[in-house]
Amino acid sequence: MRRHYLLPDISAPGRTGCRLPDLDVTPSALPSAEMLRTDLALPEVSEGDLVRYFTALSALNYGVDTGFYPLGSCTMKYNPKWHEDVARLPGFASVHPLQPADSVPGALRLIFELQKYLAEITGLAVSSLAPMAGAQGELAGILMVRAYHRKRGEAARRTILVPDSAHGTNPATAVMGGFGTAVVPSDADGNLDIKSLDAMMNEEVAALTLTLPNTFGLFDPQILEIARLVHRRGGLLCGDGANLNSLLGKVKFGDLGFDCVQLNLHKTFATPHGGGGPGAGPVCVNDTLAPFLPTPLVVADGRDLSFDSPPDSIGRLGAAYGNFGVMVRAYAYIRSLGAEGLKEVSENAVLNANYLKEKLKKHYHLPYDRPCLHEVVLSGKRQKVDGVRTLDIAKRLLDYGFHPPTIYFPLVVEEAILIEPTETESKETLDAFVGAMLEIAREAEENPDLLRGAPHDTPVNRLDEAAAARKPDLRWKM
Amino acid sequence: MDVKDYRFTREHEWLRPEPDNLGTMGITDYAQSQLGDIVYLELPAVGTQVTQSAKMGEIEAVKAVTEFYSPASGRVTETNQTAVASPNLVNEDPFGKGWLVRLELSQPSELDALMNYDQYRQFVAREV
Q1: Beta strand spans in A185-235 (E)
Q2: Which residues of A have a CB under 8 Å from any CB of B?
Q3: Which of A339, A466, B7, B99 could lock onto B26 through a cystine, CB 3.0 to 4.6 A?
Q4: By residue range, what is the domain housing residue A12?
Q5: Hey, are the CB atoms on A466 and B37 less than 8 Å from each other?
Q6: Cα separation of A366 and A442, whole Å?
Q7: What are phi and psi of A202, to 5 degrees?
């Protein structure tokens, strides 16, 4: 393994990256001595060494452009580069948020049409592109739920029901919106436990937040009954659309009885993500919630487009109009694939996950042995007998050159391994991953220490996550 | 006192009954093994009134944050500051040095509703 150095390690006194010409103007006075620091041990390196240093660092990065990235629930699919070109067209990239709306009809047209496409894809009446990210889209949904109940004089509805398989953002969002939460358990098949829901669904419940398919990658066949139950007792059904890439062109949230669903454009509609953004989390609603949508919406009067605010709007979620660059990429994605192409997206996402499930279930415990949608949850339970934990399996995958899947989530699955291959991977890539996973299963039996010490071929070896959390060392000291 | 004389909850807390209606509580070995490396403890303030089965504090592990619940009703008389400073004690010695909270029990009869050691062992075996 090559040793990676830091800039101070290669610093030599007096070495510089560039030579400045002799001073031919009158020097101005330096600030007073108290303001100048002399204790900064800034590295002194040549330009060539500096370029090599940063180039070597950049080569350590791992992303969808370098390899398979089956990080469950994150949809790390390949993003076509052409969309990047489109997003950089000056007409889109150079628009200023404070420019008069009538000077940017093209941008307005794009927002207007994307609002319509997303409403059609989800089977809901209207959508707002204002939320900046998935979690803010969730927040928009919860704030609309609150506004809806208040308007009806039912402010006593103070609880949001959240399944035990939910993304952590779901209960966090409910609390941000001023609600309390109650957890609905899953049944033995990985569906929502409908008896518990029936017992919990009372006049204090404002809404049920449901991810569909859920974080086990499973489509809940009782969804129509769930929607009926929630609505009959005056609640609303909010969808977490994080897993929409398994439903595109096949199933519509509106048809299933959802009142509201938040999407992640950066996941389903292909924008590079995982590095902290930006994302975009549009929220789509039926007629019941439409008056409460966040502002602004783009509305049409004949061919004229303008910004508008719904009558009972929950207001703005940010200073401008959402993350416009991500909207452009999503628009390009939808238009370039078309209706048939979007169907193929979900077909391939589901096919790939089921392929991995069938190939891996003989060697890893499969908690829910039934067809999955876009992702499959395995458990490292079988390897635990040999003293190997899911964490060790994930670390060993790094040695095989793969980004590990999501681990220890969903929380209700012991030693969970959540694999989402996405639709953009070929059978050859999936087979290579299966090969590595089978090899690791064999190693777990024959040489568990190899796994417990993994990774071995990475720039740094096993990091002590507990020490990092207990005694964080956040600053490099010169 | 031997761990066999402790009382246990379905949420994997233990309570050790002590003279003068006092009791010490913590989480079980099974609970700590499920959580993995514990990195942070949020314990109730001394003097807090607690109710049986109600939330008492939070335990943060590398993988997840979880709440823990009071095995009995009463008043908090002491919290384990050594464990707050070194949360790994809960992993290393959950039934001993990794105790969390000491309570003055207001309704000692509540303990009858908790599991004994053998019952708890069977409960965990079923859960696994």
Answers
A1: 205-211
A2: 408, 411, 414, 465-466, 469-470
A3: B99
A4: 7-21+29-54
A5: yes
A6: 17
A7: -125, -170
Asked if residue A416 and residue A369 are part of one domain, the reply reads: yes
Contacts of B88 in chain A (CB under 8 A): 466, 470
**B19/chain A closest Cα distance in angstroms:** 35
Provide the shortest C-alpha distance from residue B107 to chain A (in Å).
27
User: In A, which residues are within 8 Å of B63 by CB distance?
Assistant: 408
List Cα–Cα distances, A123 to A106, A141, A218, A260, in angstroms: 25, 16, 20, 10
For A292-304, give the DSSP string. GPPBPEEEEETTE
Q: ∠A41-A44-A48 over CA atoms, to 5°?
A: 150
Q: Which residue from A411, A466, A470 is facing B64, i.e. has the nearest CB?
A: A411
Residue of B nearest to A471 (CA): B39
Distance CA A237, CA A207 (A): 6
Which residue from A126, A171, A58, A93 is spatially nearest to A283, judged by alpha carbons?
Answer: A126
Which residues in A lie closer than 8 A to residue B40 (C-beta atoms)?
Answer: 469-470
Are A45 and A379 in contact, with CB atoms under 8 Å apart?
Answer: no
In the block, tokens 């949508």 appear at A293
List per-block mean pLDDT (blocks of 10 residues) for chain A, which spans 478 residues: 75 88 89 81 91 90 93 93 93 92 94 98 97 95 98 96 94 96 95 97 97 96 98 97 96 98 95 82 98 96 93 94 94 96 98 98 97 97 93 97 95 94 97 98 97 93 86 79
Residue A478: the pLDDT is 61
Of B34, B39, B64, the CB nearest to A466: B39
Residue A251 shares a structural domain with residue A380:
no
Mark yes or no for CB contact A470/B64 under 8 Å: no
Supply φ then ψ for residue A250, to 5 degrees. -115, -50
How near does any CA of chain B get to the CA of A382, in Å? 12
Instruction: Read off the tokens for A428.
Output: 């050859």
> What domain range includes position B89?
3-127
Tell whether A49 and A86 lie within a shared domain: no
Q: What would the two tokens of residue A415 be?
A: 């030693």
A45 within a domain of the structure (yes/no): yes
Q: Is the Cα torsion angle A394, A395, A399, A405 positive or negative in sign?
A: positive
Q: Burial letters for A302-314: b for 16+ Cβ neighbours within 10 Å, e otherwise? A: eeebeeeebeebb
Element (H, E) at A253: helix A253-256
To the nearest whole Å, the CA of A465 is away from the closest chain B CA by 7
Helices (H), A152-193: 169-176
Q: In a mutagenesis test of the A interface, which of B37, B67, B84 is the best target, namely the one with the most A β-carbons within 10 Å?
A: B37
